Amino acid sequence: MVNKNYCFLNFIYAKIKKYDKIIYVDILYIGSGSMDQKRIGNLIKELRKKNNLTQEKFAEKYGVTYQAVSKWENGKNIPDISLLKQICDDYNININDLLEGKNSENTQSKKVNKKKIIYISLGVLLLILIIILFIVFHDDSFTFKTVSSNCSNFEISGSIAYNKNKSYLYISNIDYCGGTDNNLYKKIECLLYEEHGMVKKQIGNYTYEKDSSIKLNDFLKDVNFSIDNFAKECKNIEKSNITLEITATDEEDKTTIYKVPLSMNKSCN
Hints:
11 helices; single chain; 434 Repressor (Amino-terminal Domain); 8 strands; 2 domains; Immunoglobulin-like; about 40% helix; eight-stranded antiparallel β-sheet; alpha+beta; disordered N terminus
């Protein structure tokens, strides 16, 4: 099974750099390679076809829409970290190979048994082992929870990762699935907030307001939220009533408001 900390570093590398432990993060990142969305999309498409799955069946398997799968395969977006790990586990591939868009079955046959490569690999593995032991004994590992929508009009996916010192909230893959909306909007605002009784606390926003109008789906494909230090304890995260509010104003100044509540896939242990 892929180490959760190792997977997570590919996803929040830029975020962790401003905190401590920058040295071991940089070492692990060397092994992670660079993410190429096109290549990742091609590999996902290859895996889907190899297993005789349509986009609809593949989407159903991972609890997303077929439009989301289409975006992955076309390199317009990538699955969130929880889905990436699940795909790796289901098809027995390495998270590193997936992030680089490589099929592990093909790369295995191309490995060259040279002493230099072996020594470097052993050295890196030894460093990773030392770092993992350091993380374990300092109780600094991250726990992951999937965030999804409770509204029939929108398909939203994201992740919350936390330990005793830090937490991160990441939301992406926002798709409108409430029918066909061909309206052109001159202004769209996405507001992410926590609600406690009558009090609303804004934790993120994304606004479109330009001379040219835009369709709702075209706007949403570029929207994502990445929030640092969301909450330090799972019980506080679980109690947070997170809502995404989308306010769209068309060319005739008619305003439509969607309120999309979000929830975690698992409760705190």
